[in-house]
Fold this protein.
Amino acid sequence: MGEDRETVPTLIDVHSHPLFPVWKAALASATGQSIESVSMFGLKMPAWSPELHIQAMDTNAIDLSSLSLPGATNFLTGRNARTLARAINEELANIVDCHSPRFGTFAVTPLDDMDAAIEEMVYALDVLKLDGVVSSTHHLDKYLGDGHFDPWFDEMTRRRTTLFVHPLPPANFKLAATLDVRVAVTHQDNRESSACPIRWSGDFSFGFSKLNNEISEGRS
């Protein structure tokens, strides 16, 4: 007889990045790279699809993955940033429609323009029914505590939106090839898995206490 489902821990991966072709193409175009070999921070991007992701989840007994692309439009501004954010969010919604309940989703917003960011957030949450919003720790030279983001945070506070925050190196940061920070992952039943490599960790805070915050690879 199999284990009672109520006794089996539910494993949720809260940190997964879908490498959509539309995003890779935009990044390649903006940075003068080939889409076949596009890389970020010196790391070549692997092949990705929902099916490959689900295979990896099943191999590791993961029940649900929360998909996010933090900073997805950071290399664009204006209409191009808005268009890319919309394309990513609609692709996220399509994945949930096709593969529910294996995926959760965090919406991308174009952070160069707060009116556009709020408009896209409202569409992603109210129309596409995504679970929350994702952001990197800064957009270009502005960190999340900058007043530039206040209208966006005000709307998230009003809605009590879940915000997933992912670290991003400072501008002009050079990643040391020898940097290898590792953390141990402990499951709910206290089994400890192999150490997982991460690349950055740090502190940040900002003054919007009513948001539902999720901090990735850092400390709140």
Notes: The longest helix spans residues 78-99. Confidence is low (pLDDT under 50) at residues 1-5, 177-210, 215-220. The helical segments are 21-31, 50-59, 78-99, 114-127, 150-159. DSSP finds five helices and twelve strands in the chain.
